[in-house]
Design brief:
heterotrimer, A mainly alpha, B mainly alpha, C alpha/beta, A: MetI-like fold, flat, B: mainly alpha, MetI-like fold, two-stranded antiparallel sheet
Chain lengths: 304, 301, 419
């Protein structure tokens, strides 16, 4: 501590000597550093964009140069859009359906569960919560092979098709998504005062009504967090859908389509780059639109 | 119906949807997996499985490729945790100081996180294979022109770490930003008036105040790098090969990829499952130890 | 009020799980689950033609390339709609799937081919195509280098030719004599195709002696030593970047841009070449004999890369067999195989000649009969052996991490581990 004090004294002198111009210089330098980091972060996107506008031969010979003809971009996009093996429009639709329904169900079910788990103080309740926490640390790799076998057995026993179907896929996402979501809601609800709920219950409101009318609105910030975290994961997920939906099937999400296309031995980089661009654009647009809420929600969720 | 049973019904109604899905999708397969790991399970429907005890586990520990994969996974995890945390903390500090373009920068640094590992792997494969040599040609740097990043085991691992950092730093940055905004501004100002320079402030005020964030970010990066799969299959396919002792091994075949390959490429499902169980045990122990250690540190600060 | 809320939630839940399950109307249809990504679109189009003709719907599903087909096939069999037709590549696949296979009997196409997949006298596999690989060369460049392809019949002749070409790099405008790839993406080129030289080069068509030994865990060290000379030769005269990290595009691209005289690849690169090269940039090419081991050679590797097999649990087997028979015996099927998918059919009744450069040359080799072909045996090794176990050995040898003697020792080790 003593040495730190002495350096503080020295710094104090420095601070006294610091003139407004020096402060300005520091500010500009920091801005430049930030800007350089920003450019570095954007560089891969830049590469993707310029190479999406190249012809097959151009991309082999001059990957770093600006494209000769930006018109190629349109040509490539049209080609990808119409490619029967990619089925871009239907793959986007599939991804949207699976992501949206999974998100709605995950956040609804998890918040419901978290609420009663927080408000019910019984052994069962604690046990169930612990079970979810254990689920947080079970890596996907441990359950992925048996899961497929189980889904097959469910079909044999009940006739419910869990593999190669939308609802099987969504069901799997609910199962994998709930532990983290319950955990996040649980943490948030703990900090919500009980007074309001108690008053409402005394007034004769039923529990479900209390939840939907009073708790859900309070949970808004954490809902955003849960939606974003799960949304990014589900939209980009590859391994789980590759097992549940399979590669090259009728129901195909964007990552599956990319894998089916880019994974072929023949790597047409110009078209792969275009595909990458077209896969990223919906998400980036969504992000830019909701940027304010998203950042706020992420920040709110992570403090807890 | 009395109040007590009514509450009980509501409890189960509210818990059931999440719990059922969770149990069916995670818990039951988890126990099935433990059982399968002790059989000769082939995953082909209709084929008999017989119980063979711990044979799969014995097989695994005598497999050099598995031991090597463990080593590389630890190495990758260690350097990823360091690299992601340094970069993201730096970004967070820069972004919180910047006033005019704060939102643009923050969004920009976050955007790579929206890109899935698979897509990202293809982008970086292209950068390492085509862009880097091509930059060497354009700027006339022969060393760069002939640099085959994905042919050298350690450079390739470094490349995967870079790609992972690019993807993940923006997300971790958000957590740091949140923590930094919690640092009371008057404390910072007071120290400024006291004349503390930037490094002093970082060491004595900022770091202790964001210690809880460290616990979270370290945990997240640790778990996510340990489980890395998508980036690797798209970027390196596990290669390049190298010698370990006198055995030929794949230098970026980290555990998640290794498990997948044993099960599918070599068609040894049960052995892959046994390796996955060990993977789970090690990950749990390492991550719990980390959280325990960091929590202790938090208190000390 | 509270009860309606609960009911509403329940209904919402039920809806979510049933909304997509409504449409389960089953018609007679044939699902074919295949592994050639590059013919996916053409096969789908042919299936549509077939449906228009016969009214039977054929659904084409594809998983291949980097995505392990075997793995997806397993998942496919766990799903509730199993395919009627799927693909095995050889004995490895047969052994995995034999409990699921139904034999073909009396199908018309069986008499039209010599390449059907037979186990214990029963026909299990419909040959998807005839493929060949070997040392393809750029006719004009080789001539310019003053090498007569007719003399390339032994390792020594190749060594002399490579050395000569290597000395004329600037004159010929090439980067290296041969386009060869041994990187992580190209495990199939080394671990399967190149290694097949050890298994069958110089042997009579159908001779499986070396393969049988390998499957028993025995290595023929003398033969491996001769073979290693060939590998050394190819690696020595390859372009380093292409050899070590090159993917398919880099390797084929080197040949296509006339930066190499030879390429170690199969006629499946035709569609790629025709895509990239225009009428003006197209050049003549052909295959030279393949000298994987010592001795004189006048053959290349010709075989069926994979076979359509029947799932014995399917109820629509007759429809499935009819579809394949149509492909083999009908003009529309021939047109699909030759003109659309750019394949060489394995059937003697096909009169169409491929218009793609290497396939046209393969037809000439095929015409030589038994003498012009070495057997494809790489798919009859145990699962994962070629691409998983030995391909990395080639890779580190290419990098120079191990010597030729160590390379041989490693291969012997890996083979003996199969015991």
């Amino acid at each position: 501590m003593a040495t730190e004090n002495s350096t503080a004294v020295k710094d104090f002198k420095d601070y006294k000597q610091a003139t407004p111009t020096k402060k300005k210089v520091v500010k500009v330098v920091l801005f430049i550093i930030t800007f350089i980091m920003f450019l570095l972060t954007m560089f891969p996107f830049f590469i993707v964009i310029i190479n999406s506008a190249k012809s097959s031969l151009e991309i082999i010979t001059e990957p770093i140069l600006m494209p000769e003809n930006w018109g190629n971009l349109i040509k490539n996009v049209v080609e990808i859009w119409n490619k029967p093996s990619l089925r871009y429009p239907s793959s986007v639709l599939t991804s949207v359906i699976i992501t949206v329904i999974s998100l709605l169900t995950i956040s609804l079910f998890s918040s419901m569960a978290a609420w009663v788990l927080v408000r019910t103080k019984t052994k069962t309740s604690t046990f169930i919560f612990m079970l979810f926490i254990i689920g947080l640390i079970i890596p996907f790799q441990v359950v992925m092979f048996p899961l497929v076998a189980l889904f097959r057995n469910i079909y044999l026993a009940t006739g419910i098709k869990m593999l190669r179907t939308y609802y099987g896929m969504i069901f799997a996402y609910i199962g994998f998504g709930t532990p983290l979501s319950v955990f996040l809601f649980h943490g948030f609800i703990k900090s919500v005062p009980m007074a309001l709920e108690e008053a409402a219950t005394i007034d004769g409101c039923s529990k479900p009504r209390v939840f939907f009318n009073m708790i859900v609105p309070v949970l808004k910030p954490i809902f955003v967090t849960v939606l974003i975290l799960n949304g990014i994961w589900i939209w980009n997920d590859f391994l789980l859908p590759s097992l549940i939906l399979g590669v090259g099937q009728e129901i195909q999400t964007i990552p599956l389509a990319i894998r089916a296309f880019a994974g072929s031995f023949v790597k047409k980089w110009d078209l792969i780059m275009t595909t990458v661009l077209m896969a990223a654009i919906p998400v980036i647009i969504g992000f830019l639109f909701g940027q304010k809420h998203i950042i706020k929600g992420m920040v709110a969720g992570t403090i807890k | 119906m009395n109040r007590y049973t009514k509450n009980k019904i509501v409890f189960w109604l509210f818990v059931a949807p999440a719990l059922i899905a969770f149990i069916v999708v995670v818990i039951i397969p988890f126990f099935m997996g433990i059982y399968y790991s002790m059989t000769d399970w082939s995953a082909i429907a209709g084929e008999e499985t017989t119980f063979i005890g711990l044979a799969n586990y014995k097989e695994m520990f005598s497999d050099v490729a598995f031991r090597y994969s463990f080593l590389r996974t630890f190495l990758f995890t260690l350097f990823s945790v360091i690299s992601v945390n340094i970069v993201s903390l730096m970004l967070a500090l820069l972004v919180t100081r910047e006033s005019k373009f704060r939102n643009i920068f923050r969004a920009g640094f976050f955007v790579p996180n929206l890109i899935g590992g698979l897509v990202l792997g293809y982008i970086w494969q292209f950068i390492f294979k085509s862009i880097v040599p091509s930059m060497g040609t354009v700027f006339n740097i022969p060393a760069l022109e002939n640099l085959l990043i994905l042919a050298e085991p350690n450079l390739t691992l470094l490349g995967v770490i870079m790609a992972f950092t690019w993807q993940y730093a923006g997300y971790i940055m958000m957590i740091y930003v949140a923590a930094l905004m919690n640092v009371p501004q008057d404390l910072v100002e007071a120290s400024q008036i006291d004349g503390a320079n930037f490094w002093n402030r970082l060491r004595n005020i900022i770091v202790p105040m964001i210690a809880p964030a460290f616990t979270v970010t370290t945990f997240l990066t640790l778990v996510n790098s340990f489980k890395q799969f998508d980036i690797i299959i798209a970027l390196t396919s596990g290669g390049p090969a190298t010698l370990y002792g006198d055995q030929v091994v794949n230098s970026t075949e980290l555990l998640a990829v290794h498990i997948y390959n044993v099960a599918f490429t070599y068609n040894r499902m049960a052995e892959g499952q046994a390796r996955a169980i060990i993977f789970f045990l090690v990950l749990s122990i390492v991550s719990l130890a980390q959280v325990y250690y960091n929590k202790k540190k938090e208190v000390e600060m | 009020m509270s009860k309606t809320r609960v009911i509403a939630v329940l209904i919402a839940m039920v809806l979510v799980f049933t909304i997509f399950s409504g449409c389960a109307k089953e018609e007679k249809s044939v699902v074919i689950y295949q592994n050639k990504v590059e013919i996916n679109e053409q096969l789908t189009a042919f299936a549509a033609v077939y449906e228009a003709e016969t009214g039977v719907k054929v659904i084409v599903k594809t998983a291949g390339g980097d995505t392990p087909y075997a793995e997806n096939l397993k998942a496919e069999f766990q799903s509730d709609r199993q395919p009627e037709i799927f693909v095995v590549e050889g004995m490895g696949g047969y052994n995995t799937w034999k409990s699921k296979l139904a034999p073909y009997e009396g199908d018309e196409w069986i008499d039209l081919t010599a390449l059907e997949f037979v186990v214990d006298g029963k026909v299990y596999g419909f040959p998807v195509a005839v493929e060949a690989w070997g040392m393809a060369y750029n006719v004009e460049l080789l001539e310019k280098a003053g090498v007569d392809p007719a003399t390339l019949t032994s390792q020594d002749a190749y060594a002399a030719a490579f050395a000569k070409i290597d000395g004329m790099k600037d004159e010929l405008g090439i980067d290296s004599a041969v386009a060869m790839a041994a990187g992580p993406d190209m495990a199939w080129v080394t671990g399967l195709h190149n290694f097949n030289g050890y298994l069958s080069a110089g042997l009579e068509l159908g001779d499986t002696a070396i393969l049988d030994k390998l499957n028993k865990g025995e290595a023929d060290v003398d033969r491996l030593t001769e073979y290693a000379d060939w590998v050394e030769l190819l690696f020595m005269y390859a372009d380093e970047a292409v050899l070590l990290t090159g993917n398919y595009d880099a390797q084929v691209g080197q040949f296509a841009t006339q930066k190499s005289v030879f390429i170690h690849q199969g006629n499946w690169i035709d569609p790629w070449l025709m895509d990239y090269l225009t009428d003006e940039t197209m050049f003549d090419m052909a295959y030279a004999p393949h000298a994987s081991v010592k001795g004189e050679h006048d053959a290349i590797f010709i075989g069926a890369p994979s076979f359509y097999v029947l799932n014995n649990e399917s109820e629509n087997l007759d429809e499935a067999r009819a579809f394949l028979n149509y492909m083999a015996t009908n003009a529309a099927g021939h047109n699909y195989m030759v003109n659309e998918a750019k394949m060489i059919p394995a059937f003697t009744n096909v009169t169409l000649i491929p218009n793609s450069p290497l396939s046209a040359n393969v037809v000439k080799w095929l015409a030589k009969g038994k003498a012009g072909s070495y057997t494809w045996l790489q798919n009859d090794m145990p699962d994962g052996f070629g691409m998983g176990t030995i391909a990395p050995v080639y890779e580190i040898y290419a990098k120079g991490d191990i010597t030729k003697a160590e390379f041989i020792a490693q291969l012997v080790d890996k083979i003996e581990a199969l015991k």
